[in-house]
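This part of the workshop introduces the protein records we will be handling. An example says more than a description, so a record of this kind follows:
>
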Amino acid sequence: MVNWLQQAVGKEWNITPAGGLTGDAYIAEKNGRRLFLKRNSSPFLAVLSAEGIVPKLIFTKRMENGDVITAQEWLDGRELKAEEMQHHRVADLLRKIHSSSELLHMLMRLGKKPVTPDEHFSDINAQLWSNGLTKQYREVVDAIEYLQRLLPAARDRQQVVCHCDLNHNNIILTTKGQLYLVDWDNAMIADPAMDFGFILKWYVPQENWNEWLNQYGAAKDHQLFERMYWYLMIDALYHLSWHHGRNQMHKAESRLTDLRHLNQYVENAILR
């Protein structure tokens, strides 16, 4: 792989792996300048760069073997700390993403179609029955019941580009104060509650939800919370199924604990 990358950027660049799960990311360095290289990134990256949501795209090159190499500007900075996720700049960045017609049109041109709540529910329900988790855990059965009861509230909502992996490690704060959201591999067209619900639940103290939602531009009401928790339960079930299928039982147990807490909140505060 390094040989192909060397052809893309030039032999004078020193190339080293950047880490990550896929092993497809590299850092190229020459005379104090650095580039972030990745193999077969989505064409969506160009629009994200133009919108200022990810670091600037320097070039895209198609190699003889069919691989596409992208090079982005490397910016000195750090991952956002968990407690910084409640900052108003995160709400502003998310609002910019969710309101971007350019991002939505590009994702649709790439063949992405909106994922409806009914499709989500049908898919996770089939997964959980096929892998036996509905027979193994009462919490899973309860979650499916709650999802079905809340399904009408999740239907017929605005569909926007959602990042779907808003872990604080995916938001970069540069030394110049710029904020970027990276790792768009899981992006889809869906209800924005899928994104901001994750941030509120796991990063923002509940007493600050009103302020955060006002900054984002969403009105706080009961149905908004129904949608939020609907997607949070879906997310917990998908991750539970994923880790269980790979025999990662410690991580599966952690997701089960999350699911248990979500179920309790839905039962006591949402459905009551």
